[in-house]
């Protein structure tokens, strides 16, 4: 398929995919003639990209035309839509038209529907920190890409330490591969402890401290996160996701549901085996406590988005949240 649309906030993974696409299709000797990168500031960027994609390549290899950060799936005029409908089905196999955007395509737009019909659409969005099973799966995939075997404990530890930061994940795995001299054996977790810089502060650990009603530790973790320049809204998004998961697991469990697959589906947990551990985490927590905590978090998110001072607002809410889980 000669048309590709890559979207998502994970810029590092997207750039790797763009580079791989270019390497597969461009002849190095003729790349300067057949590669066109068109920035979004150009007023006629989309029209120029479509025209270039219809032009035969010069010399060997294919022509690659890249429309960078295109707004095509966020807004599209009637004239531009007509041009898309006319051009996309007729782009020759000797050309590659690549469109990229950090924003998710708006499925309501006709331009998005046209692209879905004629393009290979790939998502490169960042995995939310609370979706630990997806992060762990990504660790395995990247380890496979760099040619390194990991034990399950090592993969889990690496996912916990690095999270969804794919740039750092690739860098650390390349470093570990250089260090590991036993290619036929899986890398153990102690190698990660020795070589990967770890931080004991994370938003998920903050969520655990709040759930335990440990005000002092929660305040310390929040201070450390802010000192490491962790964005306040990202911290809150992680907390909201984690508490929402706990709330759904508690709600389904107290309603009498025993099938972990059904609970996992309701709680948006990819691996049903995690449900047992989530239930264990909230065994001593009541449903009203979780409901109250989620309300406070959503209020915090609203206040920050309205411009409330970050440090004072976050520390005040941390105290309120931890108080929700204080034993009566």
UniProtKB/TrEMBL annotation:
<dbReference type="Pfam" id="PF21694">
    <property type="entry name" value="DNA_pol3_delta_C"/>
</dbReference>
<protein>
    <recommendedName>
        <fullName>DNA polymerase III subunit delta</fullName>
        <ecNumber>2.7.7.7</ecNumber>
    </recommendedName>
</protein>
<keyword id="KW-0808">Transferase</keyword>
<dbReference type="InterPro" id="IPR027417">
    <property type="entry name" value="P-loop_NTPase"/>
</dbReference>
<dbReference type="InterPro" id="IPR010372">
    <property type="entry name" value="DNA_pol3_delta_N"/>
</dbReference>
<keyword id="KW-0239">DNA-directed DNA polymerase</keyword>
<feature type="domain" description="DNA polymerase III delta subunit-like C-terminal">
    <location>
        <begin position="201"/>
        <end position="310"/>
    </location>
</feature>
<feature type="domain" description="DNA polymerase III delta N-terminal">
    <location>
        <begin position="4"/>
        <end position="121"/>
    </location>
</feature>
<dbReference type="GO" id="GO:0006261">
    <property type="term" value="P:DNA-templated DNA replication"/>
</dbReference>
<dbReference type="InterPro" id="IPR008921">
    <property type="entry name" value="DNA_pol3_clamp-load_cplx_C"/>
</dbReference>
<comment type="similarity">
    <text>Belongs to the DNA polymerase HolA subunit family.</text>
</comment>
<dbReference type="GO" id="GO:0003887">
    <property type="term" value="F:DNA-directed DNA polymerase activity"/>
</dbReference>
<dbReference type="Pfam" id="PF06144">
    <property type="entry name" value="DNA_pol3_delta"/>
</dbReference>
<dbReference type="InterPro" id="IPR005790">
    <property type="entry name" value="DNA_polIII_delta"/>
</dbReference>
<keyword id="KW-0548">Nucleotidyltransferase</keyword>
<dbReference type="GO" id="GO:0009360">
    <property type="term" value="C:DNA polymerase III complex"/>
</dbReference>
<dbReference type="GO" id="GO:0003677">
    <property type="term" value="F:DNA binding"/>
</dbReference>
<dbReference type="InterPro" id="IPR048466">
    <property type="entry name" value="DNA_pol3_delta-like_C"/>
</dbReference>
<keyword id="KW-0235">DNA replication</keyword>
